[in-house]
Amino acid sequence: MTSPQKSEKDRVIIFDTTLRDGEQCPGATMTFEEKLHVAEILDGMGVDVIEAGFPIASDGDFEAVSEIARRAKNAVIAGLSRAQPKDIDRCAEAVKHARRGRIHTFIATSPLHMKVKLGMTPEQVIDNSVAVVTRARNHIDDVEWSAEDGTRSELDFLCRIVEAVIKAGATTVNIPDTVGYTTAEEYAHIFRTVRERVPNSDKAVFSVHCHNDLGMAVANSLAGIQGGARQIECTINGIGERAGNAALEEVVMAINVRQDRFPYRTNIDTTMLTHASKVVSAATSFPVQYNKAIVGRNAFAHESGIHQDGMLKNAQTYEIMRPETVGVKQTSLVLGKHSGRHAFVHKLQELGYKLADNQIEDAFVRMKALADRKKDIYDEDIEALVDQEMALQHDRIKLVSLSVVAGTRGPQRATMKLDVDGTMRTEETEGNGPVDAVFNCIKALVPHEARLELYQVHAVTQGTDAQAEVSVRLSQDGRSMTARAADPDTLVASAKAYLGALNKLVMKQRRDIPIAAAQ
Predict the structure, then answer these.
(1) Closest CA to 184 of 153, 215, 161
(2) Helix 85-95 / helix 59-71 crossing angle, nearest 10 deg
(3) What is the dihedral of CA 57, 63, 64, 69, to 10 degrees?
(4) Domains plus CATH for the chain?
(5) Dmax (CA) of the chain
(6) What is the rounded distance in angstroms from the CA atom of residue 258 to the CA atom of residue 226?
(7) For residue 518, what is the DSSP state?
(8) Phi and psi at residue 176, to the nearest 5°
């Protein structure tokens, strides 16, 4: 965690705009109740400023900002407003019940935006900004002013307008990279220049607000802090317009992990990051990409055998932060076709298995074969595989191969090869459906009087590539035997389960009584 010796000037204010800029992401609209829930989590995890919405946009937005302002226990609650008197007044009304409220007003400052979008001269933009900041200060003490498209604005003009708005009462000055255009070096230079050239720059906190159009939002945000800004505007999961905003979890953990490069501190409880990510993902119906930094499903997962071996020896070999620090229970060693024997043995030990070396080798080979057939290997897959491997050690009847012809055109046929006490036998039979054909094949190869009492199928795990687990119970001469088998192919699992139950019945017989030969 961050050192407690750091001074207040080293504290970075985290300004979360998930509920405003994040919700402007197409398709990410949240209900009133969802907004309240997200705001409660942000407040509880230590976010300094929550931009709760755009009050003038709609009655729903106004009500959400108002209710969040009433409920917030710690965070400053901000509302966004354009540089218009009615927006300022509506925003002030929305945040008036907050323990600490803020009006956040913005206007474009780049030559392109001023000419094409606003149709205003630079002098008119300065006059307008001073007027709305003054109006906002008549409502509230905490006023933030933003230079929309700030990174494409002329530096001389930025210095002039920043000086004017601070003089008018702005307590926070935001120079956003609205279209994700700048680079880290350029952004740091903007803040250094403005802070050095504006005589009253020490009277306000400078803020960064970066979009991710070129994939540099987090890097640029951190560069802005190095340039002297002390507020980062960001969103959970990086949601936002177009390619999104700087991700809160990424900037916070970059500061947390790389104290040698970013000797600052935040008030964020990092153990809540994963939970916040999941709540926002559910509320917006925006899934988090698997390889998303910090909160993605694979952020603390390892499949490569080389990586798994290193992790088992020392987690720091491939993880620069502990999963617990961001609210993840533990590292996940994912078994798959790239996994090594070390990780497989470790997984067996976790599951409580104690196998001999030859059993481990056989099970490992089968796990690799399974991994080539399905994407994800779950604990249940390993349990089914090992249980089956252990059962096979003493089986007199073993499945060698199976092929089935099925479909609407019938008849369904099965061709099977079995190893019966070391002798290979092959048969082909028909049936009333593919399962019946498989079982008829077994009866032809190993004649018996056992009666099928139970045939049950369910998926071991989720997904269309999940293993099927089949349970079969056979009865003969007053004895019943049940066996289970798993395989991605339901018909193969069915054959293995039937043979498993049959083997148990056969094992009850004296070893010197041979199994009847196929007719």
Answers:
(1) 215
(2) 40
(3) 120
(4) 11-284 (3.20.20.70), 301-390 (no CATH), 396-507 (3.30.160.270)
(5) 105
(6) 13
(7) P
(8) -80, 150
Please tell me whether the peptide bond between 447 and the residue prior to it is cis, using omega within 30 degrees of 0. Answer: no
Round to whole Å and give the CA distance between 43 and 16. Answer: 10
Residue 364, SS3 per DSSP: helix
Residues with Cβ within 8 Å of 354's Cβ and at least 6 positions away in sequence, in order, are none
3-state SS of 431-463 is ECCHHHHHHHHHHHHCCCCCEEEEEEEEECCCC
The span from the CA of 467 to the CA of 367, in Å, is 12
**Segment-wise mean pLDDT, segments of 10 residues, the chain, 519 residues:** 60 97 79 92 97 94 96 97 97 97 98 95 97 98 98 97 98 98 98 98 98 97 98 96 95 95 96 91 83 80 56 64 77 62 72 72 76 66 65 75 90 93 93 94 92 86 74 81 82 92 67 38
What is the per-residue pLDDT for 429? 96
Pinpoint the alpha helices (H) of 203-332: 217-226, 248-257, 273-284, 305-313
Using an 8 Å Cβ cutoff, are 315 and 322 in contact? Answer: yes
Contact 419, 398 (CB under 8 A): yes
Give the C-alpha distances (Å, rounded to integers) separating 68 from 64, 144, 398: 6, 19, 66
Tokens of 181: 């255009």
Task: Please state, in angstroms and rounded to a whole number, the distance separating the CA atoms of residues 452 and 501.
Answer: 10
Rounded CA separation 45/40 (Å): 9
pLDDT at position 205 = 98
C-alpha span between 173 and 186 (Å, rounded): 18
CA distances, 143 to each of 13, 95, 420 (Å):
15, 12, 84
Distance, CA of 37 to CA of 52 (rounded, Å) = 12
208, 187 Cβ separation under 8 angstroms: yes
> Which residue do the tokens 């028909």 mark?
430
Where are the extended beta strands (E) located within 150-221?
A: 172-174, 205-209
Calculate ∠ Cα 339-344-348, nearest 5°: 160
How wide is the angle at C-alpha 30 spanned by C-alphas 29 and 34, nearest 5°?
Answer: 170
CA angle 414, 420, 426 (to 5 degrees): 30
Name beta bridge partners: 404. 414
Q: How far is CA 96 from CA 62, 70, 171, 412, in A?
A: 12, 9, 18, 75
Closest CA to 246 of 254, 191, 229: 254
Res 391: pLDDT:
56
Tell me the sheet residues that pair with 457.
Answer: 470
Residue type, 321: M
Pairing of strands 397-405, 101-108: unpaired
Please, which contacts does 359-362 make with residues 24 or more away whose CB atoms are closer than 8 Å? 359/389, 359/390, 359/393, 362/389
Summary count for the chain: helices (H), strands (E): 16, 16
Which pTM does this prediction carry?
0.69
